[in-house]
Amino acid sequence: MRFDLTDLRLFLAVVDAGSITHGAADAGLSLAAASERLRDMEATGEVVLLTRGRRGVVPTEAGEALAHHARAILHQMAQMRGELGHYAKGLRTMIRILANTAAVTEFLPRRLAPWMAAHPQADVELKERQSVEIAKAIAAGFAEIGILSSAAVATGLTLRPFALDRLVMVASRNHPLAAKAEVRFADLLDQHFIGLTGGALQRHIDMQAENLGAKLKVRVALRNFDGICRMAGEGVGIGIVPESAARRSKRSARIAIARLQDDWATRRLSVCVRSEAELTSPTRSLFEYLSAPAG
């Protein structure tokens, strides 16, 4: 059997996600390329590694064995990179970060900028993911640093505090809910919403609605929080955005702001790594910088 590191990373991503589609995305491959690699792995080894079904995939007994050895191999590779990184000078390095929507849009631009300016040889690959997906990806070694909410189970990871993220409702100042300082999400489900195009946060909000047996009535979906606030201020509908974005937009958009009372709407964000010992010097420097108190 001849499996390369890309094969092993892909297989672990698929096993952890329980889906070839999501696993391919986490491994940075197209669905077609991932499917072909998995077929080649099974054909080369003359063994069935995955049981495919309507609800996703699960590893066979042989697949479980491969996953065990793949984790050990990738763990050793990470340790090797960490040790060799101490001796590397003047070489460009790429640091992969996975973060949830609030971290990507509201916190990381200003937190990352000073560090990157001081480390011109370091590049950052930043991808947006849901917190649950981030925990799995960091544990599997698909990225070096993750920023996730307290809602995710991060067993075995090293976590440090990063930021506090509160979600709020924004509406026009003439809206019936405008006078409220706080609202419950369940009381908003009969309203028309301005949503966020794609993104981990919108999936998180949609999931909360599904848990209540409802589906959001979305009039329009936009790509950024400022646009959502501006539309809300014009009376198009209500939106749910990070409090920091709402406060920033309040200067130009005619909006009222109400905090969501639900527990899931106040999230403590943490920066995490699989193991500090595995980090290269630049990655360790960034991890320590991001986990230091802001400001």
From TrEMBL:
Signal peptide: none annotated. Transmembrane segments: none annotated. GO terms for cellular component: cytosol. InterPro entries: HTH-type_LysR_regulators, LysR_HTH_N, LysR_subst-bd, WH-like_DNA-bd_sf, WH_DNA-bd_sf. It comes from the Bacteria. Keywords: DNA-binding, Transcription, Transcription regulation. Gene3D superfamilies: 3.40.190.290, Winged helix-like DNA-binding domain superfamily/Winged helix DNA-binding domain. Residues 3-60 form the HTH lysR-type domain. PROSITE patterns: HTH_LYSR (PS50931). It holds the Pfam family HTH_1. GO terms for molecular function: DNA binding; DNA-binding transcription factor activity. Belongs to the LysR transcriptional regulatory family. PANTHER family: HTH-TYPE TRANSCRIPTIONAL REGULATOR YBHD, LYSR FAMILY TRANSCRIPTIONAL REGULATOR. This is LysR family transcriptional regulator. It comes from Telmatospirillum siberiense.
